[in-house]
Predict the structure.
Amino acid sequence: MNEPSITRPGWRKLPASAMGVVMPLLLSIFMTFIVSAVATLRAIGLAPDFVERWMSAWGLSWVIAFPAVLVVLPIVRRLAALIVETPKP
């Protein structure tokens, strides 16, 4: 079944070879956004400067997380393959 296209008319999609960078990029953005929000909220509560401090924490954590995901993802895939049975053709 084809997935619905979310691109706008006239926009071109990246080639399939970009998936190895785009997937970790998006994953690192969403995960650091959520985790930094929780950590900042827990550390300072709903302080008047919460959003400013959260965005600062998020930016720093993403700069570290994205390269880390690129390095760690192949290792995680190998470990997962040891645990999960792969489908047979």
